[in-house]
Amino acid sequence: MVNFLDTQADARRFAALLDEYDRRLKALERSTQAAHTSIEGGAMDIYDADGNLKGSVGVQPDGGVALVPIDTAPPPTPMPPTIEPKLAGLVIGWDGTWDDSYTTPTDFSLIQVHVGFVEDFSPDVTTLTGTITAVLGGTVTVGIEGYAPVWVRLVAQNTASILGPPSAAAQGTPRQAVPKDLIDGIIDETKLAADAVTEAKIALGAVNTTALADGAITTPKILAGAITTEKLTALAVTAEKIASLAITTDKLSALSITADKLAVNSVTASKIAAGSIDATHIKAGAITAELLDADAINGKVITGATVQTAATGARVILDSARLRAVGSNGATISMDPNAMYPYIGLTSPDGTNRAVINVTGGTTDANIGINSGAFTDPDGTNYRWRTFFGNDFFTSERVVASSGQPVGSRLFMSKDTASLGSGPGGGTVSLGTGTATVAATAIRAAGVLRADNISMGTATIVPVPNQPTSVTLTGGSIKGTHFRAFVTPITSVPGQRVLGVGATAVSSAGLTIWVYRTNDTPTNVDWMIVGED
Hints:
- This is DUF1983 domain-containing protein.
- By secondary structure, the chain is mainly β.
- It contains one helix and 30 strands.
- The strands form six sheets. Strands 11, 12, 13, 14, 15, 16, 17, 18, 19, 20, 21, 22, 23 and 24 form a 14-stranded antiparallel β-sheet that branches. A four-stranded antiparallel β-sheet has the order 7-6-9-10, with no helix packed on it. The chain has a three-stranded antiparallel β-sheet with strand order 1-2-3, with no helix packed on it.
- The chain is elongated and about 150 Å long.
- The relative contact order is 0.05.
């Protein structure tokens, strides 16, 4: 005879055994499949979802052990550098942001710092002066030879040593301790070693009469041409002291004979050789408009001058640096031809605000950038709108005027993609090949929402009492790969007369709807099919 209590105890032990098996099975399913694997004497290739080789980890062909990226995309363009002058150098910084990307690539390696002497220089190994390795940005101090202004550009590099496009150039000037490296008089003869100053170390004109003892210079010690007019006291050399034909043109320094040294009418046209007087021999302002014949400058090249159509008011001004047009209200349009490509600036009438149109890129590029004038946001920050037509991409964005940092709405378009964003906390719309993504806290349709992957309707079924009764709907063409259906009876007696409803054979073409009812009352059923990837 079996005891009931024994049966309950066996049931509990059997349930505990099943629970233990279930726990062990779940633990086995959660364990890492490669927890106890290794790479022996070789390397493991890494592929992306499309089957393209993207890297290799393990022993490489040269015998080293490393993770080697393969065929990675170039990093984006860094924002222009910040520059702070230091003694005989510059502190160059990067704020960790990008000109054409909101995020830092995961394979970021470092930022190269390049210094050149012209704005449009091309970064290479000869211009590389330092690196910044921090992902969030940083600074590097660079020593600069001399105190002339230099230009700085940043270039991003990923872990595969692939370089991205260079940033826009920023200018900086090293700082001197004092206006001169050495103050006059700071080094005297007591601070010089014997024989420390030789002839090769004395600049021309450095030794004058006040520095020489009486009788220190004799005739054998004077080089030919060493004594010029500015070295002689007025009337020190008179005609009776000069031998006949002793002074010829090759004995005279350029500009050594000036008008104040010539007697009136001593030089006439017959005494001037053809072509001997050029621009270097004419005093500034000596030739005025009334001294020129009509058509005297037609077809001639004018250098070193400023040409303008009027002294004030509306006018056009041309000099060696730029061409400017000034309106009657003071607004200006200027073109700077000194860069690789001209820059066109448009300045407000009061001169406090400026918009710029520039053309950038390499020698074969013509990328167009349009920057609006600055405006002040209610938050107190100055912003501007920047539009850029790049090498097969377009962007329009709202940026901080002082740094170029994007803040707010942004539109980006390329060959295969496009995106529109409303800034931090807002929504974005991204378009790709065959895809469209809308990301926002809330998505609302102002009208009726229609989608090719959703189909819905109402079917009427006359049921056979107390038997499952169906109707099949066909002829649809719903987009998607996998399909699911939702069916709901329109009834006021659920659970009393209508005991069940369901759907089978759900596909792109339609479905079969089932109703179980206790009587034969025709029953309407709302249905919906949703297609998924």
